[in-house]
Design goal:
By secondary structure, this protein is α/β, with parallel strands linked by helices. 23% of the residues lie in helices and 19% in strands. The protein has 2 domains: 2-121, 2-Layer Sandwich (Alpha-Beta Plaits), CATH 3.30.70.80; 130-481 and 630-641, Rossmann fold (3-Layer(aba) Sandwich), CATH 3.40.50. It is globular and about 95 Å long. The relative contact order is 0.13. Mean pLDDT is 83; it is low at 1-40, 123-128, 148-152, 619-625 and 627-636.
């Protein structure tokens, strides 16, 4: 029903716009004559409702359609519009319509004229899709950058930023990967599987790449990715069945380390993983990621899709590798229920929850479990529509995954669900942030994404981290960060180029929410406006957020060398009330999370009930080093089916390229 209503809403918007341009009646008049009758069919519903609710005096832009077939109405028509209270009258060369600024009440009265065929608001036209709107990417792309690279259209869209997609390959022939000039934005491809191909016979990587940086050519921009003009680097590590290995991933990461400057690779997306056994301190992929992050590359990793057991019960402790790596930005999945409004968003039931349960053993054979708070953030990931690789395995085996958007090979789109889908949403956001401010470090990007995130009510930090990604807010902050920060910048120095920070609120699709105003720090969290107004040493390259946390006997404190005095730490893992990271009902004592650093880990062993779920994953899953495109068997179910029946609305493509994305 939501999908149907959403489609009807967009249909209505475009119908009114078409009417505003093409529908004219056959008479020409020298003057607008106003009668006392006000037929409702001649004025748009939103004008009538606004006037009825007392907003008649509000100045708005309206579109006036004259009752004439002439190319242009007479000069008296414009004079009469001015007499009716209109100003700033705009004309078109080929259409007789007028765009006029006037009070709403005057527009309503004007609709009763026999010389006017229709009056409607001059609405914002957004040829964008559900994903780009609900994440705030549409708003972010309308920001004109001053710190970054200037685009030909003046909007932030990822221009110049390279995103490496480490996945199952990319179908470079798909229309989603062209730039506005018709050139392919996949600037490099290499196969690490041994199959000798860089295309995507499995079908996972193409969908992932288009979520991060697909253009809006198909279906009038409904399925535009987050950074539609970013460059893509296709590093194929998953074979035709969606399976890879640790070594193939390491080879790809090694390639990135050697070639990142050549292709300006600032972002790496890893929508893949394996069961986390080794501590992040020893996991080879984690260590490779840590090295890349220290060199200025921001890495995004999927949290995993094991948030519930086979009986549908909520479980904790199944964050997968490399999502366990503290320097990576680990992303969980949100179910948007197919609506642009974020008021109904929830953490997807399958999205893996923290804490991380990887461990290492000391010389006495005692296990020390990492127990990091993960994921860091969550993003839309349920039943999203994006590019479908031609003839791919996933759709061949599951035809219902095809979204029915097009019958043309390089224009087909498909549904997928999972944290593999939410991760490139965040990766695309980072590309926009880096275009806005190329000097941002990976840790600053991580902090700004968390600080501006929307806490989802009813979910704790082990489920959502700091909250749902807010791309509009994050890019807004990125634009304000100083560009002269360096290794000599001291803790407490001004972080922004403005004296006052922006208001910590964002409105997306008519829903206003307050930012989390906090960041996750290994086993705890920190809050305070100093996080965005003053430089914190943890933002420097090579630092880990948890480095600045002092752990003692049942206490967590912040090291003053790493944090300014205005930052405070929490001592509870909280269930959010939807307002701020530090608000909500206590879910778990934070000191229990780092207890395993001091003992054998019995406090949070397997099967322990923690709030509303069971801690699992403490060595229970014995992996063999195999990496799959969407993690493990239950993840495949999530990828195919997602949560409930709500999904991103599908829109048919007429085969015409839309270039206004």
């Amino acid at each position: 029903m939501k999908r149907y209503l959403n489609s009807m809403l967009w249909s209505g918007v475009f119908t009114l716009l078409i009417l505003a341009l093409f529908v004219f009646s056959p008479k020409s008049r020298a003057q607008v004559s106003v009668s006392t009758e006000q037929p409702s069919e001649k004025v748009s519903k939103d004008i009538r409702e606004k006037v009825a609710h007392g907003h008649g005096g509000e100045l708005v832009r309206v579109i006036i359609q004259p009752a004439t077939e002439a190319t242009q109405p007479s000069a008296y028509f414009d004079t009469s519009l001015a007499s009716a209270g209109g100003r700033n009258i705009k004309k078109f060369k080929n259409f007789p319509v007028r765009v006029v600024t006037m009070p709403l009440s005057a527009a309503l009265e004007l609709s009763s004229s026999t010389d006017v065929s229709y009056v409607s608001l001059d609405r914002d036209v957004q040829p964008m899709g559900h994903l780009s709107r609900t994440t705030g990417a549409d708003q972010a792309r309308n920001i004109t950058t001053t710190n970054g690279v200037d685009n030909t259209d003046g909007r932030i869209n990822g221009t110049g930023v390279g995103i490496a997609i480490i996945d199952s390959g990319v179908d470079v022939d798909h229309k989603s990967f062209l730039n506005s000039s018709g050139n392919v934005r996949v600037v490099y491809s290499e196969d690490f599987t041994g199959e000798g191909i860089t295309a995507d016979p499995y079908g996972h990587g193409t969908h992932v790449a288009s979520l991060a940086a697909g253009n809006g050519r198909i279906a009038s921009g409904k399925f535009v990715g987050i950074a539609p003009n970013a460059n893509l680097v296709n590093l194929r590590v998953l074979n035709s069945e969606g399976i890879g290995s640790t070594s193939t991933v390491l080879r790809a990461l090694d390639w990135v380390a050697s070639n990142r400057s050549t292709y300006n690779i600032r972002v790496v997306n890893m929508s893949l993983g394996m069961p986390a056994i080794d501590s992040y301190k020893n996991d080879p992929i984690c260590k490779a990621i840590r090295g890349l992050v220290a060199e200025g590359v921001v890495v995004f990793a999927a949290a995993g899709n094991n948030g519930k057991d086979s009986n549908g019960n909520k479980v904790y402790g199944h964050i997968h590798s490399p999502g366990i790596e503290p320097s990576a930005i680990t992303v969980g999945a949100v179910n948007t229920y197919g609506t642009d409004s974020r008021a109904d968003d929830t953490v997807a039931t399958y999205s893996s929850r923290g804490p991380t349960r990887s461990f290492n053993k000391d010389d006495d054979g005692v296990r020390h479990i990492d127990n990091l708070i993960k994921p860091d953030i969550v993003a839309p990931g349920n039943k999203l529509i994006e590019a479908e690789a031609d003839g791919n395995h996933l759709v061949t085996q599951n035809p219902s995954l095809d979204a029915g958007v097009s019958e043309i090979e390089n224009r087909r789109m498909m549904y997928l669900s999972g944290t593999s889908m939410s991760t490139p949403v965040a990766a695309g956001a980072a590309a926009l942030m880096l275009e806005a401010n190329p000097t941002l470090t990976p840790n600053l990007i991580k902090a700004l994404l968390m600080y501006s995130a929307q806490p989802l009510a009813g979910f704790n930090m082990l489920e959502q981290g700091a909250g749902e990604i807010n791309i509009a807010g994050a890019v807004r902050l990125a634009e304000l960060v100083r560009t002269d920060l360096n290794e000599f910048t001291v803790t407490g120095s001004p972080l922004l180029t403005v004296a006052e920070p922006p208001v910590a609120q964002t409105t997306i699709a008519n829903h206003t929410f307050t930012w989390s105003r906090g960041i996750v720090l290994h086993h705890t969290y920190a809050v305070g406006v100093d996080l965005i107004t003053k430089y914190q040493l943890i933002y420097s390259p090579g630092s880990l957020f948890g480095t600045g946390v002092i752990t003692g006997d049942g206490t967590l404190m912040l090291d003053p060398e790493f944090f300014s005095p205005g930052v405070i730490t929490g001592d509870q893992i909280l269930t959010s009330d939807g307002v701020i990271t530090g608000d909500g009902v206590a879910f778990l004592a934070a000191n229990l999370l780092f207890h395993d650093l001091l003992s054998d880990g019995t406090l949070l062993g397997d099967g322990v009930i923690t709030g509303d779920g069971v801690i699992t994953g403490d060595g229970v899953i014995t992996g063999d080093g195999v990496i799959t495109g969407d993690l493990v068997a239950t993840a495949q179910s999530a990828m195919m089916n997602g949560d409930d029946s709500s999904m991103m609305p599908a829109t048919s493509d007429d085969g015409t390229d839309c270039l206004d994305y």
